[in-house]
């Protein structure tokens, strides 16, 4: 199911080149992947979020200075029976967010496994972010921020603690990914999903830019 969100502007930016990137979310079930995406795309949070079956597809657009970044977001299911399908979704992805629950050490350990898998099998230049979600439950913390920060630095990952419930660092983590992604000038009429290209410039191929920075 595709869901289009509104455009998010950064520093009052204006529309320029439009780049499209495939981004995948990975992590154990119930760490809040779908909640993070819902907060980012729609600005909403549901206390009881149904588990994703297979994967969900959503889009959201960010504006950076004179560049528009359109994310094609694949929110994968965390249940063990679906994990064998993950390579189908992260193949060709230019970015990934690996999510864990700061109140559950096991989910952090599993996040490390996902990072290793991405480093081994995903695109060589993939931008990987580590998100310690549910920071609003810090009183129940099982994973120290410093522990995750050191791990992220050792593996060249972006890292933030987030809260889909309070919106803490949700937009920020996507923004930092968008800033780090390469802005390739190669133009293509084909979509970016699964292409493995550094980025697809849609400036020439998409004249009807209803999601451009100048729209709301």
Automatic annotation (TrEMBL):
GO aspect biological process, one term: protein transport
Predominant location: other
Family (UniProt): Belongs to the small GTPase superfamily. Rab family.
Ranges where the record places region Disordered: 182-216
GO MF annotations in UniProt: G protein activity; GTP binding
Name the record gives this protein: small monomeric GTPase
Pfam family for this entry, one: Ras
Record's catalysed reaction(s): GTP + H2O = GDP + phosphate + H(+)
Segments of skewed composition (Polar residues): 202-216
Sorted UniProt keywords: Endosome, GTP-binding, Hydrolase, Lipoprotein, Nucleotide-binding, Prenylation, Protein transport, Transport
Documented EC number(s): 3.6.5.2
Taxon lineage: Eukaryota, Metazoa, Ecdysozoa, Arthropoda, Chelicerata
Record GO cellular component, one term: early endosome
Name of the encoding gene: 107361906
Gene3D superfamilies assigned: P-loop containing nucleotide triphosphate hydrolases
Annotated organism of origin: Tetranychus urticae (Two-spotted spider mite)
InterPro entries linked: P-loop_NTPase, Small_GTP-bd, Small_GTPase
PROSITE patterns in alphabetical order: RAB (PS51419), RAS (PS51421), RHO (PS51420)
Subcellular location: Early endosome
Superkingdom of source: Eukaryota
């Amino acid at each position: 199911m595709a869901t289009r969100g509104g455009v998010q502007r950064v520093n009052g930016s204006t529309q320029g080149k439009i780049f499209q990137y495939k981004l995948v979310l990975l992590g154990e079930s119930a760490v809040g992947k779908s909640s993070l995406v819902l907060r980012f795309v729609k600005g909403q949070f549901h206390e009881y979020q149904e588990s994703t079956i297979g994967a969900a597809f959503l889009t959201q657009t960010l504006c950076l200075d004179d560049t528009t970044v359109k994310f094609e977001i694949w929110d994968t299911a965390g249940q063990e029976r679906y994990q064998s399908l993950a390579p189908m979704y992260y193949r060709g992805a230019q970015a990934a967010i690996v999510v864990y629950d700061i109140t559950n050490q096991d989910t952090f350990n599993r996040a490390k496994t996902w990072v290793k898998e991405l480093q081994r099998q995903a695109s060589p230049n993939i931008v990987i972010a580590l998100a310690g979600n549910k920071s609003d439950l810090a009183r129940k913390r099982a994973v120290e921020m410093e522990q995750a920060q050191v791990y992220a630095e050792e593996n060249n990952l972006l890292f933030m603690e987030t809260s889909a419930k309070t919106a803490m660092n949700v937009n920020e983590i996507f923004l930092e990914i968008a800033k780090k992604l390469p802005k390739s000038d190669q133009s293509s009429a084909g979509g970016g999903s699964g292409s493995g290209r550094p980025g697809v410039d849609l400036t020439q191929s998409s004249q009807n830019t209803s999601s451009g920075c100048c729209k709301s």
